[in-house]
Fold this protein.
Amino acid sequence: MGASDGASRGVMEGSGGGAGPVSTVRVKPRSRADPAHPLIASHEAEVRLRVLKAASVLVDRLTYDAVTIEAVARASGVSKSTLYRHWPSRQLLVLEAFTYKTNLLTNVEDTGDVARDLHAYLVALTYCLHIGGAGSTVANLLAEAIRSEDFAAHFRHTLLRERRQGFLAIMARGQRRGQVRDDVDLAVVIDAVYGSVHHRLVATGQTIDGSFLRNLTRFAVDGVATPSYRETYRART
């Protein structure tokens, strides 16, 4: 069967043993990944991953403004039209690429100790901000979110949600182990800890260094720990 025949396939129907093409169904090619068509879905996923990897490397090497659709197209070998089909704007592409990269770099092991896990997560998060122009990228993404409510929604549902989920997983494990009090509002704690990092990054420009991260961890643990865990934690610090 030729390529044109593959696009239009005769549906054979008949009775009494006779059969003939009584209707033709034209199959339209799909432009987006479809779970019902795993080959198409797999190809789309591969293209997206190749683009995100290439874009995340550019985010590390270039300034925020220099990570253009043209630059990503050259680096990934994917056409601009394909990029725009998946990411309607450069800002959305940079946002998703940075989220992809930070997800890889902030996968923290569960040590069984909430303070160690929280500090490790903060260190990993800070490392992401210190690679190349990443700190500037985050600041510019925040600025984009302030300017555009549309972009702000994407920001909240990608980068912000992923980072908050990282903090939440650590604190929730601490509650299950009896290290974090059950009456603590974890959302408030996460906003206070994560917000302080962004405050230094965007507002004050103060250094986000080892001393700051240790003090921030101690501040958080002192506020949320159960009495028994607080005593153990203070004894070792």
About this structure: Residues 37-96 form a domain with the Tetracycline Repressor; domain 2 fold (CATH 1.10.357.10). The beta strands are 8-13, 20-26. Confidence is low (pLDDT under 50) at residues 1-35.
